[in-house]
């Protein structure tokens, strides 16, 4: 890895502290955004269940991030949803997220 020294400048301690505090706030914001109600140990189980239904991996990841609650949520993520899945399969997908 090559580190490019772009925008290098000297900082006072106060400026450095302020910058680090802002980065800390960013870290907290990212952690809050990435936190959902699903337990980490359930993710692999849900991935397997969704893959078994016939979803693509990128759809599975998006659905795990979105935690869909209704058919409209699925429609936003699943390509050609009406052609690929019947109503029973879509209900099965939603039920996976209700547990």
UniProtKB/TrEMBL annotation:
Localisation: Nucleus
A GO CC annotation given for this chain: RNA polymerase complex
GO MF annotation list: nucleotide binding
Keywords for this protein: Nucleus
One GO process term, biological-process aspect: DNA-templated transcription initiation
Domain of life: Eukaryota
A Pfam family the protein falls into: RNA_pol_Rpb4
Primary location group: nucleus
Descriptive protein name: Uncharacterized protein
Species assigned in the record: Nosema granulosis
């Amino acid at each position: 890895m090559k580190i490019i020294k772009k925008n290098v400048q000297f900082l006072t301690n106060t400026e450095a502290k302020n910058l680090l505090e802002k980065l800390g706030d960013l870290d907290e914001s990212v952690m809050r955004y990435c936190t959902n109600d699903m337990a980490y140990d359930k993710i692999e189980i849900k991935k397997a269940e969704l893959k078994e239904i016939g979803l693509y991996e990128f759809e599975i990841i998006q659905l795990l991030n979105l935690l869909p609650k209704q058919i409209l949520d699925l429609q936003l993520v699943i390509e050609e949803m009406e052609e690929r899945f019947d109503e029973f399969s879509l209900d099965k997908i939603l039920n996976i997220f209700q547990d």
